[in-house]
Amino acid sequence: MRRRNLLGAGLLGLGGAAASFSNPGTQSSVSAPSISRNRRQLNMVTTWPKGLPGLGEAAERVAARISAMSEGFIEVKVFAAGELVPAFESFDAVANGSADIYHGADYYWTAKSPAYPFFTAVPFGMTAQEIMGWIDFGGGQALWDELSGDFGIKPIQGANTGHQMGGWFRKEINSLDDLVGLQMRIPGQGGDVLRALGGAAKSLPGGEIYQALQTGNIDATEWVGPWNDYSLGFYREAPYYYGPGFHEPGASLAVGINRKLWDSMSASEQAVVKAACESTNHTSLGEFTYQNAVYLDILTKEHGVQLRSFPEDVVKAMAEASRDVRAAAGKDGIEKRIYESFETALASMSNWANVSDGPYYAARELGRKR
């Protein structure tokens, strides 16, 4: 009888804990341990125009997956660029706590640190798979945490566009002379390379690019690739579409979280946010890869877009300038450690790519032409 009574008491205790878990916030009179969960209502600001395919959708996807994985206990409201803060003020808004999360490209924050582009894309740098490899397995995340932690932000990979295009140009680029004086929208280290070759680089948020191209304030622009570029209509103003995008071979996009908010989260809440970001990172790469192929056909077959490749002397000069630009971003302190870690990982993974990816693409193309 005593054993049965003890068993019954144990079951009552478990039932009280379960009841407390299924009804968050209620107080249980049962002395057994109770579990409570706090609801969070968070704001996400972005650097993307409202309704933008791919990039804007990635931000919405992160928010939706956080809500679904947390069973609604963490709700994230997404604000497009300009709705809560201007695109390029997203970082400061999260750092000072006026917003909770941002979704954007960390090379926009080069004024904060010249090392930020390494966590998005740098000229002749890492492909999408390689930057994931470095951040997740090569020590990149710890360095990113340290860099952003100084500004009160916790960074996580939140999307990847894959290989980008070189940009839209009003006139053909036939030699290095054609870059001299060229006014182009191109941020990050890609802009530094253009300046080194005699051009003028501007950093504009996505929502301002078309008007600048239309009014002649810029002669050329890069953005992402066929899918996103089509939606912003650049083909209507600049008929020459150059590739490949040596400046962004695999652009990683970031979710930045206010550090105090992050530290206040339980381990399970942090795991939910990480999982939502990681799954979106995976989904976006596949999505961009497929949709870029679809929209490249639309641009060339329905809108007469003319595909071009940069001349060999231009490519060579860009490659040479990019080495100096990358090195200049990592002169000392945390920036030097980031640069050295990046370059070491890039050299290692390039050796593998030269054995695997490059020869495979060449062999596949040879087979297609038979």
Automatic annotation (TrEMBL):
Binding site for Na(+): 223
Keyword Metal-binding: yes
Signal peptide, first to last residue: 1-19
UniProt keyword Lyase present: no
Positions of substrate binding: 164, 185, 222, 248
GO biological process, any: transmembrane transport
Gene Ontology cellular-component annotations: tripartite ATP-independent periplasmic transporter complex
InterPro entries: DctP_fam, SBP_TakP-like, TRAP_DctP_sf
Record protein name field: TRAP transporter substrate-binding protein
Keywords associated with the record: Metal-binding, Signal
PANTHER family in UniProt: EXTRACYTOPLASMIC SOLUTE RECEPTOR PROTEIN, PTHR33376
A matching Pfam family: DctP
Gene Ontology MF terms in the entry: metal ion binding
Organism of provenance: Henriciella mobilis
